[in-house]
């Protein structure tokens, strides 16, 4: 594949004014209100909630997420708060300004430690760099639960997450079917450091390599923000005249790819990951073929339940699957799918 650097240099920085993806200018916490409320995010329940001891209202479960720049994290927060209310625990939910702000997230994790909560939930941007802080948390006797991204450590009591590699494989399967098993496909992945970012890229690549020999898969490009993803997508199109499909590995990359494709004027098949108003509208309109949606409300809910159980010395499984589904314009109104979509 031809180098993209020169094409990227020609692209101007784009600002996408989409209500479905807001990037904050400062550190966010549970007292901050998003610019608009999460919609289509129902209450959830869990088989794991049986025998969970209720608190007395004085203890806190402290969740350090990857940010507030996408509606996904606001939906996770909603699920966490639902569980906190149900089981009488305070919920503190924080996240950095964006998914590249690794040091800011580590500082927030240190703040969580200083608050001495009953348990801490952590969605790592860079699991390796977090290890020293995780060790401090363990030494303080505070149980840790990983969520969304796995943490490269034995310290978390469990990990609440989507099976991202399998989900990305499902996205690849649908892309292949939509292209009739032939073509050239680009990938815009959201990062190279988090377990989520790596798994969603690798899962897509591995499925294509094994099952779609007549599809040429281009080297993955990385863009963690909407504007950069738009530029990257246009650069992919410019550098590869035969491209007929693009995969975006999260909400920001999918929205950015959608914008880049629209601005390029080229007709191709776009497959995304996560939900959000922009993707939902694009799928309804037929400009995006479909996407994988996680169950973010359930993820937040399960993380708090796991934190409460860990704080009370209860046994937890190594992983807790929060689920995923493929959605497109044909099935997005089905109740089983609709309950996991959020704007």
Task: Compose a concise summary of this entry.
With 343 residues, this protein is an alpha/beta fold. It contains eleven helices and 13 strands.
Secondary-structure element order, N to C: HEHEHEHEEHEHEEHEHEHEHEEH
Which overall shape is indicated by the principal axes computed on the Cα atoms? elongated
| Beta-strand residue fraction | 15-25%
Q: Measured on Cα atoms, how large is the radius of gyration?
A: 20 Å
The percentage helix is 40-55%
Domain Periplasmic binding protein: 61-313
Signal peptide: 1-25
Biased composition (Low complexity): 25-52
Protein name: ABC transporter substrate-binding protein
Molecular structure report:
This is ABC transporter substrate-binding protein. InterPro entries: Peripla_BP_I, SBP_2_dom. Pfam families: Peripla_BP_4. Belongs to the bacterial solute-binding protein 2 family. Keywords: Signal. The protein is an alpha/beta fold. The strands form 2 sheets. Strands 6, 7, 8, 9, 10, 11 and 13 form a 7-stranded mixed beta sheet that branches. It is elongated. Helix 2 packs across helix 10, helix 3 runs parallel beside helix 4 and helix 7 crosses helix 8. The N terminus is likely disordered. The chain contains 11 helices and 13 strands.
């Amino acid at each position: 594949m031809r180098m993209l650097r020169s094409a990227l240099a020609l692209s101007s920085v784009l600002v996408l004014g989409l209500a479905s993806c807001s990037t904050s200018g400062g550190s966010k916490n549970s007292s901050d209100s998003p610019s608009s409320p999460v919609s289509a995010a129902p209450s959830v329940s869990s088989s794991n909630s049986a025998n969970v001891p209720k608190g007395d209202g004085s203890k806190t479960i402290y969740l350090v997420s990857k940010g507030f720049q996408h509606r996904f994290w606001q939906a996770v927060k909603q699920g966490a708060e639902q569980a906190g209310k149900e089981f009488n625990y305070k919920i503190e939910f924080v996240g950095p300004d964006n998914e590249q702000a690794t040091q800011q997230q580590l500082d927030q994790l240190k703040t969580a430690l200083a608050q001495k909560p009953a348990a801490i939930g952590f969605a790592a941007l860079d699991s390796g760099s977090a290890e020293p802080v995780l060790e401090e948390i363990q030494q303080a006797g505070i149980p840790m639960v990983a969520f969304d991204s796995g943490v490269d450590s034995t310290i978390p009591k469990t990990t609440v997450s989507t099976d991202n590699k399998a989900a990305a494989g499902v996205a690849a399967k649908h892309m292949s079917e939509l292209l009739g098993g032939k073509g050239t496909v680009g990938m815009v992945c959201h990062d190279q450091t988090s377990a989520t970012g790596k798994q969603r890229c690798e899962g897509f690549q591995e499925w294509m390599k094994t099952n779609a020999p007549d599809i040429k898969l281009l080297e993955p490009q990385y863009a963690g923000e909407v504007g950069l993803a738009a530029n990257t997508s246009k650069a992919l199109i410019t550098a590869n005249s035969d491209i007929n499909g693009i995969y975006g590995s999260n909400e920001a990359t999918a929205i950015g790819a959608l914008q880049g494709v629209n601005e390029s004027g080229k007709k191709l098949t776009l497959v995304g990951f996560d939900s959000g108003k922009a993707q939902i509208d694009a799928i309804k309109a037929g400009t995006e073929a479909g996407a994988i949606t996680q169950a973010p409300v359930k993820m937040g809910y399960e993380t708090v339940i796991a934190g409460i159980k860990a704080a009370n010395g209860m046994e937890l499984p190594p992983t807790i699957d929060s689920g995923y589904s493929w959605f497109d314009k044909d099935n997005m109104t089905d109740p089983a799918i609709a309950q996991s979509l959020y704007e």
